[in-house]
């Protein structure tokens, strides 16, 4: 029991490092959490990580989006090794990061991704929050990273297609997207894609299609297909010892 309490206490303390914030644009509000590096100073510059959660963490409590992934960036070791500003926005219950048509009448889900549709309200707010944050003088413009899982993996692919020149690297877990749109970003940044071979919610074929599309457009993505993982392939992903070293080793060449 003591061990369980200690683990819970550590996880709770890590999540409390993320400050509650609201991004307001006109009549719309996007809730988000933000974690600053240790000894943060506005006259220094830091990498920025934007992470998009899955459909199960949607809501308006500005808390649920931290369930998966937040502890990875907030661990003592990783905060020391990879000091960064990390943002976890929260998608409302009735919205979706990606512009996806989702048929939930059977599983795995039937998913299609329109090519020319406008962004959802949630995606539009995320892009506006990103633009506002990037404009801060303490953000390293050559080290802006993106990641997401499930619905957030889908949002990752879509955001890359809409903002192909912003990110230095990105990773997508058990997601999917429109393969045609991969042309927009295939050669612009390195990607690492993850999926579980036993996924009975979002079939791994979606990630396989995106890998194939990236390759066909000249990209060179990393791809992990976990043979024993179901939809929770994020557990295997977050246990990858090279994920954060790989991510933070990438820098974007900025246009002069």
Task: Tell me what you see in this structure.
The chain has 256 residues and is α/β, with parallel strands linked by helices. It has a single domain (2-248), classed as 3-Layer(aba) Sandwich (Rossmann fold). The chain has helices at 2-15, 70-74, 76-81, 121-134, 151-162, 205-216, 234-238, 243-248, and strands at 19-25, 28-35, 46-52, 85-90, 101-103, 110-112, 139-149, 169-173, 191-196, 222-226. A hairpin with a 2-residue loop joins strand 1 and strand 2 (28-35).
Number of strands: 10
Beta-strand content bin: 15-25%
What is the CATH topology assignment? Rossmann fold
Overall helicity: 25-40%
Could you give the distance between the termini?
57 Å
Instruction: Tell me the domain tally.
Output: 1
CATH architecture: 3-Layer(aba) Sandwich
Strand order of the largest sheet: 1-2-4-3-7-8-9-10
Described by strand count, sense and barrel closure, the largest sheet is: 8 strands, mixed
Radius of gyration: 17 Å
SSE topology sketch:
Layout lengths: L1 H14 L3 E7 L2 E8 L10 E7 L17 H5 L1 H6 L3 E6 L10 E3 L6 E3 L8 H14 L4 E11 L1 H12 L6 E5 L17 E6 L8 H12 L5 E5 L7 H5 L4 H6 L8
Parallel strand pairs: 3-4, 3-7, 7-8, 8-9, 9-10
Antiparallel strand pairs: 1-2, 2-4, 5-6
